[in-house]
Amino acid sequence: MTGQAQTLAPGLYFLATPIGAARDVTLRALDILASADVIAAEDTRTLRHLMDIHGIALGDRPLLSYHDHNGERVRPRILAALAEGKSVAYASEAGTPLVADPGYQLGRAAIAAGHLVIAAPGPSAALAALTVSGLPSDRFMFAGFPPSGAGQRRQWLAELAAVPATLILYESPKRIRELLADLAVSFGAERQAAVCRELTKRFEEVTRGSLAELAAAFADRSVKGEIAVVIDRARARAADPAEIERALREALECHSTKDAAAVVAEALGLPRRQVYQIALKLGDDD
C-alpha cells in the first residue's frame, strides 16, 4: 500500500516533490517518506504539509531543516546519521533536488564518505517547461537563475547566446521584464522562446513567441508565481563562402587543416564539419 513503512537500505535518498499539484508526487517518494529513519527538507513546513495531505505520519522521527543558510551546520548531523547506518530522505521545497537547490553539497559529502546515494525522480519545473514550450528538446541546458544585477546579467547572457542547445532559465516575477528585454538584445529579437509561469498550479500560463514579442507582452505586466523561461538554441548563421575561404586561407598559414577549420568554425559560428570540408577542398586546389 502506498505510504506504508518498509525497510530501507541505509543511505541518502533524494526525493522529487510536486512543483504545484500535490498529486504529482510519486508513489515511491511517498513510500520513502513513510519509511526513512531521518527526514531532511529544504522547507520543513512544505514537506509536512505534503505528508499530511497523503496521510504519512512523521511520528518520533527527526525532521531536519537543511538549506543554503544552515548547510555547514546541519550537514554533519545528516552524515552522522548515515554513518550510524540510517536511511535519510531529503526533499527540495519543490521539484527535483540539486536543480536550483542546496542538495548538491550534501550529495557530494555523502558520496565522499562512501554512503549509498539514491534518486527517487519525479517533478521538475525545468523539464515541465521544456515539455510545454514547443522548442527542441533533443539537446538542452539548464542555466539556473540569472544574476540580479543588470551588468552581471547581460554579461552572463552574452556567454550563453551562442550555446547550440535549448536553454532553460528560472527567474523571479519581479525581474522577468528586465530579463526578457536583455534577452532580446543579447540573443536577438527573433529568437523563439516561451515564458512558463505557475506550472501545474491553478493559474498555469505559457506564453510563446519571439523574444521581442515576449519582451513587449511583459513590459507592462505585473505577474506572480514561479517562472521558467525556455529559449530556442543558437542557430548557425549563414556565412558568405568568400568570407569562409578568406578566413581559412589566413588560418592555414599557421595551422594544420584540422586546426584551421576549428578556429574558423568557432570564429564564424559554423559547423566544424562544414568548414573542414571547405578547408580540404582549398588544400586540393592548391
UniProtKB/TrEMBL annotation:
Residues 12-215 form the Tetrapyrrole methylase domain. It is found in: Cytoplasm. GO terms for biological process: methylation. Residues 238-282 form the RsmI HTH domain. Its main location: cytoplasm. Keywords: Cytoplasm, Methyltransferase, rRNA processing, S-adenosyl-L-methionine, Transferase. Its EC number is 2.1.1.198. It catalyses: cytidine(1402) in 16S rRNA + S-adenosyl-L-methionine = 2'-O-methylcytidine(1402) in 16S rRNA + S-adenosyl-L-homocysteine + H(+). One of its GO terms (molecular function) is methyltransferase activity. It holds the Pfam family RsmI_C. InterPro entries: 4pyrrol_Mease, 4pyrrol_Methylase_sf, 4pyrrole_Mease_sub1, 4pyrrole_Mease_sub2, rRNA_ssu_MeTfrase_I, RsmI_HTH. It is an enzyme of class 2 (transferase). Catalyzes the 2'-O-methylation of the ribose of cytidine 1402 (C1402) in 16S rRNA. Belongs to the methyltransferase superfamily. RsmI family. This is Ribosomal RNA small subunit methyltransferase I.
